[in-house]
Amino acid sequence: MGSEIVWLSRVSKGFNDGDKYHQVLDDINLRLGTADTVALTGPSGSGKSTLLNIIGGFEFIKQGQLYLNSSNTSSWQDKQWSQFRRQHLGMVFQQFNLLTPLNVKDNIAFSLRLNQQQWTPWCDYLIEQLGLEEVKHRSVETLSGGQQQRVAIARALAHKPKLLLADEPTGNLDEKAGQQVMTLLTLLARESNTAILMVTHSSECAAFMKRRWHLEKGKIHE
Ligand SMILES: Nc1ncnc2c1ncn2[C@@H]1O[C@H](COP(=O)(O)OP(=O)(O)OP(=O)(O)O)[C@@H](O)[C@H]1O
């Protein structure tokens, strides 16, 4: 084993669909190294979100092994999963899961506090770079979809995670904002050695990542 942050070995996953079994991932092997950046593409329903959910511990596997930070997760209990997520994982999913009574700054500060971390100049930098300066004291429920997406991105990056899982992180953004987000993500990967696995349908966004994985019919092609 090398310095992978994520290693999947012979992972299969499927779901029962009525009386049929639908195989989504078929004997997948993949490695994501420190500071690796990967664009994950594939047709709708090919299993991209399922793969992210497995790596984040939201879907469990019965076949194959998942190693995170060189540790085999098959023996992990809830405690280890929450510790890994708090300390090392940033997630931007299609639903932003923001805390709606709170304002922008408090949403970011709340997730830092969960991990006993303080607000740092990096957080101010994120707010500025993501164009959230003017709305930072506004309740997130009053923001547009694109603004909420940028808050979700700031929150996911605030603790400089080792691994960022992002599902269409620029889906609600216009081209300029999308490019700014991609520039930020690449900067983060370089500065903090963060590995990024990002689902995207945009070839412009995919071009910011070093590698590309295409998922189709249960298999990953690089
Ligand atoms: N919890 C679940 N129970 C049953 N089937 C599921 C579950 N999660 C995913 N699936 C099925 O697994 C397949 C892959 O879904 P997934 O959401 O991972 O695809 P995707 O590539 O992310 O799609 P999209 O690009 O449309 O978001 C789909 O056929 C979906 O219906």
From TrEMBL:
Q: Which PROSITE patterns match?
A: ABC_TRANSPORTER_1 (PS00211), ABC_TRANSPORTER_2 (PS50893)
Family named by the database record: Belongs to the ABC transporter superfamily. Macrolide exporter (TC 3.A.1.122) family.
- At the top level of its lineage, which domain of life is listed? Bacteria
Presence of keyword Transport: yes
Keyword hit for Cytoplasm: no
Pfam families reported for this sequence:
ABC_tran (PF00005)
The residue ranges of the ABC transporter domain are: 6-222
Keywords carried by this UniProt record: ATP-binding, Nucleotide-binding, Transport
**A single GO cellular-component term on record:** transmembrane transporter complex
In its UniProt entry, what is this protein called? ABC transporter related
- Supply the source organism for this entry: Shewanella halifaxensis (strain HAW-EB4)
Q: Name one GO molecular function term.
A: ATP binding
Per its UniProt record, what InterPro entries does this chain match?
Answer: AAA+_ATPase, ABC_transporter-like_ATP-bd, ABC_transporter-like_CS, MacB-like_ATP-bd, P-loop_NTPase
